[in-house]
Here is the input.
Amino acid sequence: MTLPSAAAPAITSREVVLKECFGDELLDVMNFLNEVVMRFPEAISFAPGRPLESMFKVQQHLSAIETYVQACSARKGCSPEAIWREFGQYSLTNGIISDLIANHLERDESIHVPPSAIITTVGAQEAMAIVLTGLFDQARDILLVSDPTYIGITGLARLMNIRVVPVPADAHGLEPNAVERAIVHASRDGRVRALYDIPDFNNPLGTSLPLDRRIALLDVCRRHDVLMIEDNPYGMFAYDHARMPTLKALDERGTVLYIGSFSKTLFPGLRMGYLVADQRVGSSAGPLARALSSVKSLLTVNTPPLLQAAVGGELLREGGSLEAIVAPKRAQYKKQRDAMLVALARTFGGGPQGVTWNAPAGGFFLTLTLPFAFETADLQICAGKYGVIVSPMRFFCVGPPRTNQIRLSFSYVDPQRIAEGIERLGAFVRDRVSGAGNRH
Amino acid sequence: MTLPSAAAPAITSREVVLKECFGDELLDVMNFLNEVVMRFPEAISFAPGRPLESMFKVQQHLSAIETYVQACSARKGCSPEAIWREFGQYSLTNGIISDLIANHLERDESIHVPPSAIITTVGAQEAMAIVLTGLFDQARDILLVSDPTYIGITGLARLMNIRVVPVPADAHGLEPNAVERAIVHASRDGRVRALYDIPDFNNPLGTSLPLDRRIALLDVCRRHDVLMIEDNPYGMFAYDHARMPTLKALDERGTVLYIGSFSKTLFPGLRMGYLVADQRVGSSAGPLARALSSVKSLLTVNTPPLLQAAVGGELLREGGSLEAIVAPKRAQYKKQRDAMLVALARTFGGGPQGVTWNAPAGGFFLTLTLPFAFETADLQICAGKYGVIVSPMRFFCVGPPRTNQIRLSFSYVDPQRIAEGIERLGAFVRDRVSGAGNRH
Here is the structure.
């Protein structure tokens, strides 16, 4: 089979736009991060922010569809067969398990919102697409992002021609005064519509936003009429102490749009996330989520009901809380984080190499700072010669590229391999610092 | 639970944009069409273009996941458990069953494309979102649509600020000379990037594009460097004679982007569609589908692997063709179409009322032309007083609103109810023509 060659229409303009957005090198970063494991099967990869497959209960969660079918059948007084058929049909745009998600948010996140404020989405990514498509006027609106940040939000914004302005994060994440300065400065060029951040166990940094900053940040955003987009895929993975409240749990004024995900608590193949938009719209009685359903319907019509039913069934089985399902996963990821911190201390601690790192209190990632710039070529060298894969931090940067930093993910590698992988990284760093690594 | 009220950020600008796009009245058309059945449970509805639930084999198709798991397990030489876990993980952006879809396209549609040209999508709607996001420069590109047309494409284009220019369809669909005139005329204001149509059993009209027009249309598009977006959800539902070749089957120059769907052949709750983009991009070796994977990854990351596996399993079981699964559905829909044509002839035939209709050779819809304008108020009157629901054709119009036409869907109502529903519609028309209907 060959591709059409003669006189095919010129597929160039938008492609050029894409390349201008990302740069040639970064065009495939998203795919790289998802597919790198397949390309370098022999290397130990600290690159992808994937959850550990051995923890997945795919068939168990899928069997929860039956639990949800039985519950619907009892509630509606019709046969299980009728419910199964209903799940085969086009369904409600904003989803069928909003009541169960609202209950889960109360139980596990201390977030109190009505079911009508929730849109079930095809992963958190679609929630971002709904927000950027539905709430941004690209002619004038600006998206602020904590920098570095998740590439799924900046890539999407650029794809949709929405201006992105970075707010540099420090060792604790966003600093409210820096946010306010950025808002004031950016407001000269347009309207700052929203600020995106992952306050809990940040991707890519591994930072946690302190409580006083959360409160101050909400105040800054409210005063400047800026929406806060809080993305919280890792919140239930706190390893050291009680969790801090999410921004949404602290939000009394409708400042926060909250994005949740079942990719880490259950498994990513569900492609199940949700958007919480409880803001009142104009004089309308309904929440913003209802207005945004037009946008959802134009992107994917509705989220697959059968997968909603699987999540709904698990939430029913578990009485609304995912804690029992998450606990063993959290214990495993904590082991992996600990293994990485121990290995880093053993490999780089107290040495003369000037390598430093942070100790994340949860989530999947930490930041490693090197005494030299980590180039794209180093990615290939690390993977090919040393058998270890990492993510250059500048992949995630909108502003200055943090050339000396890399993101290490400990979510996808078991403790023994983590120790081995960090040793390999140590060998690379030693060779590179001594000049040996440059010969390749 | 109450919504935040005090000092919530102003959620207005984009909403205003949305209302400008659709008009207040049309803002909820998509939701209306999907949810109208729930709002008027007592009425006979010819409005939604839904497939008939009684034909769904939801559990049977879902059980095909196991078939696909076994096949993967054998091919890859790993355990079924490992395959199940793999389906729980983040997956390839463009999907995992492209080889099976390519085979299905050969068997059932005589379309020959390499698997690398296929992107599996969350329903056909996401395929449209990928095309409009990835290939349109909204500053200058124009989308032509056959008019009236599927509201999912025009709504999406407007949401994304892409200019839409209608090309009026006649009794056989798009007329190639009219298309060429529209291209030439619109090219004064920008670049005509693509033309959207449903050539087979058009939604909303029920027309089928004649073969000579298909050939001429491809020639016009190719000469003017305009992509043809062929949306084909109903192609396998031909009732009277052998199918005509799709535009994609006739396409030798990479003129056509083809959008497929499993919503009608299997069931809509799968949310499984696909985009065929086999055009060569610039000097790249890969097809356009590969370049567009960046866009797909930023909208939904990937299509749920478990649902891809369900479709893949059915395609394996059926040896690549969906014919055996579709045959009984086609027979049922044909019965329903015949029942509607018989009922229309009985109710309106030869009478003085001046009601006319077309006889579609396949698909879910036909066009009824009334001797008076069918207003929005008539929708409520029909549903509430006469117990029958229809879609005003102007819901689907970009250009002149075809006020005297309605779309009747025969896909969602059994033959007996169809007869009853058309009788009710007859009563409404008689009262309306005689002036009685105006009193309500």
Remarks:
- Residues 12-25 of chain B have pLDDT under 50 and may be disordered.
